Fold each of these.
Amino acid sequence: MGITIAIDCMGGDHGPNVTVPAALDFLSRNADARVILVGLEEKLRAILPAPVPERVAIRHASEVVAMDEPPALALRNKKDSSMRVAINLVKEGEADACISAGNTGALMAISRFVLKMLPGIDRPAICAVLPTVKGHVHVLDMGANVDCSPEHLLQFGIMGAMLVAAVDHREQPTVGILNIGEEDIKGNEVVKQAAELLRNSGLNFIGNVEGDGVYKGEAEVVVCDGFVGNVALKTSEGLAQMLSTFLRQEFGRNLFTKLVALLALPVLKGFKRRVDHRRYNGASLLGLKGIVVKSHGSADAYGFRHAIERAAEEARGQVLSRIADQVARHVSSSSQAAAVAAQESA
Amino acid sequence: MGITIAIDCMGGDHGPNVTVPAALDFLSRNADARVILVGLEEKLRAILPAPVPERVAIRHASEVVAMDEPPALALRNKKDSSMRVAINLVKEGEADACISAGNTGALMAISRFVLKMLPGIDRPAICAVLPTVKGHVHVLDMGANVDCSPEHLLQFGIMGAMLVAAVDHREQPTVGILNIGEEDIKGNEVVKQAAELLRNSGLNFIGNVEGDGVYKGEAEVVVCDGFVGNVALKTSEGLAQMLSTFLRQEFGRNLFTKLVALLALPVLKGFKRRVDHRRYNGASLLGLKGIVVKSHGSADAYGFRHAIERAAEEARGQVLSRIADQVARHVSSSSQAAAVAAQESA
């Protein structure tokens, strides 16, 4: 039994020129997979080979959500956008997952409206993958929620752990909470309370992870609120860009350094491959009754294909039932504990 | 008229072995400066040349604050610690500034207790300097305050701008507030309100700066709460370390790559110099009635010397009176505005 991925082909900075070739590349590497390409049929056919390849279906959608469109307007007015139609396909069971490189806010709003939340989860979270010295780390939330309660952070921990179980086949991944280590004041109240909840959650919780611990690979899942997560992610992007600029400038300084750069090319390529953000493209919108993956808007076909792979892995690993089961287990053990406490105090 | 810097020689991972040579190097480059070396006299004399060089005074202090000592205990029990004695020298006007590589929490607690806050400033903030594509940026707070009100963030903006005026001789530096740019939700309530206050503050406020904008040099001063600032700083440290590890590994892969590394050495050195964190060593504790600079605990003599230079620049640039004046101006214009508003509504 194969899997089917619905692809919003119109989203992102490059639209079908990137999404369609990425989809075909994905199919050539995944014999069990089918794709439904969603968008302006004419544009899609112009890029697709004729006849349309096997395992490819086209679903026409007459509208496109603009990258800068206010999410509330996209939700209200664009009922036939490629983004919404792709999400509908997941809702109706025609696709196992959907993916878009479009407007993040709109994707979040429409997904939440169409798919609804899983029972026991209050808010969706954006989970990204980052490289570490040891491999990679899943970090959430990356910007969906600016103010989080301890309970929200606990739910993020459960969702992140189940995502890692689904895609990395690690049944008890380590979970840490992002915190600061200043001697005087170890974190704010919300983080302290969330750590307490995580410690009693049955997850493999390892405690606080400081900023530098994220890239040291101290935990497989790192939980934080969306404000902090987004700042950490964007700061990292900015630093990496700056370092790459400086390195290029130093290698471009004169004829000798340019020659050295030529010799160093295989080394620099090897280095670049290890931190290539395109290989980590694809953030998961977790907590919904359906698998939704967000690609970076500027992704090329290589990066977008990686994001499709991610959606496929989540479907194969049954991330949704894993999250639902774990939340149910957690809720029942909490209410048992509450019942015991009530009995003892009676 | 020269300046005098009090140096806690016992703090940090390496103590006098780093702090004393750094102080002597600093003196050789700053003919107008004197230093007071504070610590266990015997240990200091063992490292100093005999006779003690000109412009060097020794002040014995019998105790040392341990790096992992709870700040409250250090404050209560170690009245004769090198850290406290150095701060006392500032309080008593014998030194224009003091510097320590010791326990951050203790330095903060003792500075606040001994020196007190400047009028109109509620809390001290830690301000660090980071390299950018365009030069450098001052970011505060880096971890002194985990929960900040909009008014605190406004005060950070004033202090940061005055610090840049003092040390970089830029009278109207640009000030931004660290925020996230997710389409749906632009920042939390505190940040929105703080932005409003900064917009009306008379500072050269340029609005939101996202994480990547910090290293792009979008503003000369970036304001954030201590939790976010600390995470951003530590995350950057972790990423830089990881990239450096990967680069070393790739250059160490085989005989050819090692040979290339040898050729590339001048390039890599030039690169390293541009992002050498030792050149940015020295975070300012702002808001106190005295200049206090915190060096990284693991700094070597080169790094510690840079932190002493920083303390000296702050003293020469009269950062304290600049902050005090600006706060006074701000308070008077706010109360004028309030008076006008009251009159209008009457």
Amino acid sequence: MQENKAQGTDISTLGEFGLIKQLTKGIEIKNSSTKVGVGDDAAVLDYQNKKTVVTTDLLVEGIHFDLMYTPLKHLGYKSIAVNVSDVYAMNACPKQVTVSIAISKRFTVEAIEEIYDGIRMACENYNVDLVGGDTTSSLTGLCISVTALGEAEENELAYRSGAKVNDLICVSGNLGAAYAGLQLLEREKAIFENNPNMQPDLSGHDYILERQLKPEARKDIYERLKEAQIVPTSMIDVSDGLSSELMHICEESKVGCQVYEEKIPVDYETHKMAEELNMNYSTFSLNGGEDYELLFTVPLEKFDDVEKMEDVKVIGHITEASKGIYLVTRDNTEIALQAQGWNPLQE
Amino acid sequence: MQENKAQGTDISTLGEFGLIKQLTKGIEIKNSSTKVGVGDDAAVLDYQNKKTVVTTDLLVEGIHFDLMYTPLKHLGYKSIAVNVSDVYAMNACPKQVTVSIAISKRFTVEAIEEIYDGIRMACENYNVDLVGGDTTSSLTGLCISVTALGEAEENELAYRSGAKVNDLICVSGNLGAAYAGLQLLEREKAIFENNPNMQPDLSGHDYILERQLKPEARKDIYERLKEAQIVPTSMIDVSDGLSSELMHICEESKVGCQVYEEKIPVDYETHKMAEELNMNYSTFSLNGGEDYELLFTVPLEKFDDVEKMEDVKVIGHITEASKGIYLVTRDNTEIALQAQGWNPLQE
């Protein structure tokens, strides 16, 4: 960033209000529930007789992202995607976001606009309105806090607590790819730091890199469930790893579960990366975070419906709580799952 | 904080989920609009046929607060107060907050509990439910992001844009005290840094210190307006200084204004502090930030009502836009006001 500064516009030339004006200009309101967006003490929303869901997530430089390999536009996009993902995980439709950013003075106005370009792209893609926020400076790292709001009919909401014995456990997409992408980026960063003349070798890894740097929330799965008139008995998004999310559902629903290693969807690139790093790819899919896939349960009688649902796999079923939380491995061994998900408090 | 660590509990012993559980245990839901609080992917709210307002603010260490003189409990309290203040400034009633905190590992669990004690106290005082959040680590400073939600009937909402020519301009409480408190704390900090054996001399300044360290949102004024059945034609909270807020109202309402220096309420301690520092106290009241008083306009015919309203002063009136934004000084000079409010982007 330092080099950019010489060519870019210093933030202080605009001031806080000028900067906010510049960043939010041309924002058009897309949802009828947004009555007033940016520009007053608060935004005004009207959810009429629907329920409102609200969720918030904080992305911190050096903990959640490394600016050495994270393009600012992708970072802006990701900050929205991870939040709307939580709204979809309630089986609700995201409608508004607020965004607060703390930026160090080493950033130029152009750099912040990059972040906002990504934010705007994501708002466009997920059809949400940016209705408020706060921009302030930071003495040190970059910090992005997003709150997302969405709506649902009361009987559509999917909590973590509704899974029942014999329910099928389903997951969208594939798991472990974002973590594989992170491993690759970290490896190349280490090589570059040891020898700055080395060029990073990222070829052939486009998919896992995109999963790490520009993850998508599963709007499509939310829509497919709606089309199929399925309300999951429980749902959660996979942000901390499959094991960790299964444990949340089992704990909140007071049930156990059995999932089958061979059924857990893993992409070819994730396999390849695990192999390159001499690691077990199941470690990636079970404990790697940031997949933002949807993990949900449906009653057994919905088997045909979910079986034919594009990009959804049945990976196991819910059992009595006393049976515990088990993975059946390829060689038919049952092992108790433990949440070894990414712990942001340990760095 | 470093000394505490030896005696306190290391954050990593609890992990993210353990920490969140510990911090949010015993939280009871107070508002009927809160259907589900902490513990799922998102909180669920039901505003029925009322409008929802939503606002967010980010407090960053070294920019908005200095841990050298800010007690953690006060910091937690303040982070809620400044957000519900924005809800009151819409003439709406705050109902829920979400809180995200990024903390460096130098903090102990006990230190974070201090912050949450303050947050809980404020939630109690303003009758809002803590419904969600995120706790993560930070490589450097402490960062607190709060989003507040509230409700109002559509015809009760007070925007910045509704002020009309001849409306009376009113302000609650007094102005400049929080800034005076900040000046005092900064002076004593500088003295201490030069000579660590010196004890800070804060006696006789309790009021301005409290205004800086533990500001209150004006719930009482919101309630008095309701009792008096007054819906302000415009309203804003004074967070960046009176001049800056007057300019927001005038710009959004496309009007001008005239305020009278002698009518602007300033506390005795603020006067005294300005004198000690050889500064003009009007600089404090016009440009000092963080008062969190309510600045609002009412139609002329409400003069008697606001005149008798406790802790509310009429300080001027709205004029045609062409007349500009003017302060009439004690010696009857008219000077154009400029927003010299605190700019968080310049540090």
Amino acid sequence: MTYELWYWNGIPGRGEFVRLALEAAKTPYRDCTREPGAGQERLLEDMNRVREYPPFAPPYLVVDRMVISQTANILLFLGEKHSLAPADTAGRLWVNQIQLTIADMVVEAHDVHHPIASSLHYEEQKAESLRRAQVFRETRIPKFLHYFERVLIPHEGWLTAGTHWSYADLSLFQLVDGLLHAFPKRMAAVISDYPCLSGLHKRVGALPELQDYFASPRRLPFGDGMFRYYPELDGE
Amino acid sequence: MTYELWYWNGIPGRGEFVRLALEAAKTPYRDCTREPGAGQERLLEDMNRVREYPPFAPPYLVVDRMVISQTANILLFLGEKHSLAPADTAGRLWVNQIQLTIADMVVEAHDVHHPIASSLHYEEQKAESLRRAQVFRETRIPKFLHYFERVLIPHEGWLTAGTHWSYADLSLFQLVDGLLHAFPKRMAAVISDYPCLSGLHKRVGALPELQDYFASPRRLPFGDGMFRYYPELDGE
């Protein structure tokens, strides 16, 4: 059984949270839109197939006869299947909760450069972006990062008790990575307030099971995805 | 064992998705912030308690020694515990996926009147709201509702195969209810395009297990919650 991952071609985006879990679990998968001769059209065609459980949007995972969409839902499935999260109810729900909180911050990071509509260009909503970016930098970044720092402390550096990472640790790495890319000045100014979070970012970046992936062309640069760097939206 | 539900006082908001599930399951619960003499301060005090798994934001549910937050995560738990969702993997993930898609639309409905910051008043971001509302009405409402209509058809009116509702059916009712409140003109213009969704809204509204609740003061009006009615943001 090889998983089929479907996501927009050319950006890490939300697909990257799934890729990190698949790669760290050493699970074979096809990144369907990125296969030679494939591309965005193949994704749109596949999304329109008649299915019992059709996705609303990518990413989605096709496995056996199941079609699983929504990033946090895919990770819930992979967590259970590949032991990438605790098996007990409290631990499993905790990891899912953190994943959903990460997802909330990802939406906000995206909406900084698209506060009016995803369907419009950044340049068409730049005035609104400048306003939203200021609030995001000054209020939202500290609020979210303070929370993640707070929940890392009692667990000695991972989100779950014990010495092993969960899929939400990988996602938290990706979130911090994205923020460092999109808001380098702001992150440089505040990162020392979050030593546990910064430590987690470094530890996931150094995980032996991810080194092959990070060195491969499968790992995409941020580009025009959720996390975008516009100098005018950043600031200390 | 009585559940403790914690949410902002005075608005249905995200807490309402949890309330509907608890009420329809006929499960006893305390709505802690709304108890006599309680209120917002009691919520803030409780949120700051030192806990192994602290919430990022309300709603959260306290049960036995667990603290479960994030709306979709609470519902995942209640769904498993009270059979409010299918027990098999495919059905359970499907209901979770729909719940997450509903949550995505709730964020967008909220951001129509708060496109810059939740911490600012509507009047401080009204110009941006007018722009975002137009996109929401013309593009996002049809996109989401078309999807929900599409997934209801093969299942004869509920989101899951079979003759029983799941917690996501209750949430979909609440979503439509909120849209009818916030965008009455727009919804009146498009609702006939979505007969299955409209039918689900009516059927959940008539569920025998919810009639006591709907007639009680426990069911709150929309007010200044996620779904708000501003005439200038509505239109056909």
